[in-house]
Amino acid sequence: MKQLFSCLLFSLLLSFMSTQAASVSGFVFDDSDGESLTGANIYFEKVPFGAVTNNAGYYVVSDLPAGKYLLHCNYVGYRDYVKEIELRDNQNLKLMIQLKPALMETEAVVVSADSVRTAVKLFRKAISRIDISPSEIKTMPSVAETDLLRMLQSLPGILPISDFSSKIYVRGGTSDQNLYLIDGADVYNPEHAFGLFSTFNTDAVKDIKISKGGFPAEYGGRLSSVLDVTNLDGNRKSFEGTAEVSMLSAKTTVQMPIGHFGSVSASYRRTYIGETAKLFYDDIPNYYFYDGHIKAFFDINADNKLSLSFFKGDDFLDYTFASGAEGAPSIHYDWGNTTASLRWTHIFAPNLFSNFWVTSSQFDSKFSVTEVDHSETNDLSDLSFKGQLEYALSKSVDAKFGFEQKNLKTSLQQDNPGGVVDVNRKRQYFTGYLAFSWKPTGDWMIEPGLRYNAFVSDKTFQDWAPRFSAKYRLTENINLKASTGIFYQYLQKIPRPFIADIWTTSDKYHDRSKAVHYILGFQYEVAQNLSFELETYYKTYQNLYSLKNYFLDFKPSGYDETGRPVFTETKGLFNRGDGYSTGIELLLRKRYGSVNGWLAYTLARTEYTTEGINQENPYAPRHDRTHVVNAVINVDINNAIREWQGKTPSTAKSNWKLGMNFIYTSGQPITLPSSTYYGAGIPDQDYEHLLLYPTAINRYRLPDYIRMDLSLTWKRRYKHWSMAPYLQVFNIGNRANVWFIQYDSEETENQITQKVETINMFPILPTIGIRFEF
Amino acid sequence: MIKPKIKRISGVLGFLLLFSSCGTPTISVDESTYEPKIVINGFLIPGNPVSKIKIDRNFPLGQSIDKNEIPLNDAQVRITDVAADTAFTLSYNPDSAWFEYSGTDLNIKYGKTYRLDVSATLDGRPLQAASVTTVPDEGLKIDRLASVFGDLTYRQTSGEGNLISPLIVYEQSGNSAFYLLSISALDAGFSTFIYENPMGQKLEKMLDRGRKIEDLQYSGKWKRPDNENNSYSFIEVNWFRIWFYGPYRLVLYAGDQNYYHYYNTSNNVMGMDGNLHEPIFDIEGDGIGVFGSAVTDTVYLNVLRP
């Protein structure tokens, strides 16, 4: 593989050494608010190659012969930009493009005019990557609160474990195999409310990219997926804001310019879940969470931009088992994430674009139970330095290279009468990568890459992770894609019910985890703005770690001064395993228009083989589902009727929007009891329990999971502001989807009658709220 | 012409999706998951006769079971003193439904290893099971001077106002895997129930919710061995574990590895996600349950009304 890479590198450098002609470069902005636009298309009439703006809104088209060109810039929801330019030999033309929104008020989902073919856009998109716009998330019905991770659960290949969790499981991987990035900073535990909601505030989000596999060399450190979220830079032209109140939360986002050289955006969300729940139920804990985000963007000059981003979110819980009773045990728990990032964007030359980050991510939690004298702190911090450079070598070759250095600290301290846990770790992670994008002809794109990882713990791990993908335009309407790569992960998460998961790292006892992805894709432009994608994948895993069910034979490292055992090692904490995932995903998607959405089907299989589990026979993990059907439809009712009547869409003073989300999954694996039996726990107690003896692990399946959610929004526009009251209904059919099975028995003098009951997931859950924009 | 058709198809499709997302799926767990097993429940305690070895059968889920059919009274049960390589055959006592050794030449001793062999025919299938236990060493002893037991007023406080909780201070036994304090109310009932228990739920309410009075009457609290150089350790009985006024029996066990695994896993096979996982049983062959050993010491507590 290394030799192949060297050959490719050499041939690409040869291509670079050819003559260098003129170039055009610059940024693409939204004319109304100055926000940079990611993914805008730049192309020339009669010249086969163009460019797409990167995350910072920057583009470069190099290697252009001198001459006159008609430059087009296009972005969905905006008017087409056309400009005639004349280039001289070796001229580097800088062209800042301001795109005007197509309508007075940007309704991106309604606009369908788009001069770039859908098949071309599909071709440019990386394999297994899905782009989501914030407006798509906001239109989807949700469980009380619009949530990014829950929205992703409606995409093929991405699944939840239950209604009660926003965690995602991508193509058979576990939830700790996903890399979450906010403005370049890693987020380690992106969960509020014990996993019910995620920490991403959708009002503050500008751009979302989820890669389900085969991701390029610039990403690493996780086995399964990458969620890259970019927050709003802020409105550079005028003050604007949103505010929303629902039954569970209130939130606001504001954006404003900072003079002529920058902008700032800030958002804040505070829930009152505990207070609302107390209206319906007794004995509810005091609970709420808040999160806030602020981002400042400074446009220093044409070649230097700076952005500062800060996020903080905290959850607070207090519960007393018998409020007012003397000696009642109580639980106090607070946890949260703080992330900060400083990004410097520098253009060394028109064809050499760079981003440098300093990021900090911190998670901390404090948990205590009075009366039993139990306390715990669980902290993680990550200070990272990274750089990424994009080099347009020629009109057919682009290169990306970069580095990252991470300083990780994890700490878990537990103190209770039975013993002490004191685990402190400092780790360093170094990476460097190089990736090329080579277009040998207009129909081919070859993307080789190589990533080097060095992870320093009590043992040093050094790994080369090659990546390779190829795309081919078979016809005007059809693209073929393939990708493969090796992925390493040096962090494992210890999942825990109720309280926050703990991160631990590879060390002399736990080898790093490894996955190999093989992906094939087929893309078909059914019509303009209507795409069909088929992807099939096969993933292998090595060294998957799952937490042992019991910690009984865990040896203490020593004893404290009072004689209590002290645990400082993670040896014996995990069961090691291997596995594979395979599947096929079909996605029919219409991204824009008065009726948009997608229909998806997934056929998948995942099996793990784990030491000490299921007598080391393969088993399906709980997140495995064989068949999944997703249907998401968003309808702008007024414009749909207009289109139906043959009229063009328009921005009416008021309009109605309907959202529908339907999901069908075949049954979740479950372990059933093979039998029951009597057991006496303690010899002197004359009391026997009826106990369960399990069968083979996850051999059976729960009934199919089916759910339909609906949302209805009425939006009324006024001169300077608008309001949108909404109704959302989660599980409108009130289907009793089974979460797990409960076993019970009734005993008479000589007879035992056993009962099997189901514990179900969320019933029908209606929510109302109102949203303001000003 | 096409539009009305699309309208109709969309309507029918929407209705079908909505219809399919209603309802209550049913679950039936039948005999197809059943595998017959010999259920062993036996402990060896130094100084005590071998008289409480319970050999039962398991049974399929979802059935009504006649309790008289549970003991495997025709099982072949044998205990072997491994060091001496001497086997002792146990016989079934129909009054107690336990297997016992009626001779006098089997004396369970500290630190010695014993093996249990069971064979029985269950549902027409010949089954065999075996397990080995090593009895913990001598030494377990409750320090009666340092411990707090005997007569104690519910949530008694000291002159300084500090809460005094029942406390068992004990000298540790070598070679034990864990220490378990058995807490048994000897006079449990509605009239002795402590309604002021800080867990705050009334007995009737708890029973309505399916809890049995025995769930409150009997409990246990366990601890790993403390520093071997520090031979003393302690277990505090939190007041919220005390649900009844009156006498309590507090039995301290120094248990072996088999008992440690069984006590902590047999009744703990359901995770927080509702799924089941495997218990740890130190039994070979077709058996489940426990064949363990322990060293014990006992004191009594009397909880007085304030």
Give the helix proportion of chain A (percent range).
under 10%
The greatest interface here is: A-B, 88 and 99 residues
- The structural class of chain A is mainly beta
Strand count, sense and barrel status of the largest sheet of chain A are: 22 strands, antiparallel, barrel
The CATH class designation of the domain at 2-107 in chain A is Mainly Beta
Radius of gyration of chain B: 26 Å
| CATH fold call of the domain at 2-107 in chain A | Immunoglobulin-like
Share of β-strand residues of chain A: over 45%
CATH topology of the largest domain in chain B: Immunoglobulin-like
Silhouette of chain A = globular
**Anisotropy-based shape of chain B:** globular
Order of helices and strands of chain B: HEEEEEEEEEEEEHHEEEHEE
Portion of residues within helices of chain B:
10-25%
Structure characteristics:
heterodimer; A: 774 residues; mainly beta; Immunoglobulin-like; five-stranded mixed β-sheet; B: 306 residues; 2 domains; seven-stranded mixed β-sheet; 4 helices; 17 strands; 13% helix; globular
Compile the SSE list and pairings.
The complex is a heterodimer of chains A (774) and B (306).
Chain A: H1 2-16, E1 22-30, E2 41-44, E3 47-52, E4 58-64, E5 67-74, E6 81-87, E7 92-94, E8 97-99, H2 118-124, E9 129-132, H3 134-139, H4 148-152, E10 158-159, E11 169-170, E12 178-182, E13 185-186, E14 191-192, E15 197-198, E16 205-211, E17 225-231, E18 240-246, E19 249-258, E20 262-271, H5 273-278, E21 286-301, E22 304-320, E23 330-349, E24 352-369, E25 374-392, E26 397-416, E27 419-438, E28 444-456, E29 460-473, E30 478-489, E31 491-494, E32 502-505, E33 513-527, E34 530-547, E35 558-559, E36 565-567, E37 574-590, E38 595-610, E39 627-636, H6 637-644, E40 654-665, E41 669-670, E42 673-680, E43 688-694, E44 700-701, E45 705-717, E46 722-730, E47 738-747, E48 751-760, E49 765-773
Parallel strand pairs in A: 1-7, 1-8, 12-17, 27-36
Antiparallel strand pairs in A: 1-4, 2-3, 2-5, 5-6, 9-16, 10-11, 12-13, 14-15, 16-17, 18-19, 18-49, 19-20, 20-21, 21-22, 22-23, 23-24, 24-25, 25-26, 26-27, 27-28, 28-29, 29-30, 30-33, 31-32, 33-34, 34-37, 35-36, 37-38, 38-39, 39-40, 40-45, 41-44, 42-43, 45-46, 46-49, 47-48
Chain B: H1 2-20, E1 38-44, E2 53-57, E3 64-66, E4 76-81, E5 86-93, E6 98-100, E7 113-122, E8 125-134, E9 141-142, E10 150-153, E11 167-171, E12 178-185, H2 203-208, H3 213-217, E13 218-223, E14 232-236, E15 246-255, H4 257-265, E16 284-285, E17 287-304
Parallel strand pairs in B: 1-17, 10-17
Antiparallel strand pairs in B: 1-2, 4-5, 4-7, 5-6, 7-8, 8-16, 9-11, 11-14, 12-13, 12-15, 15-17
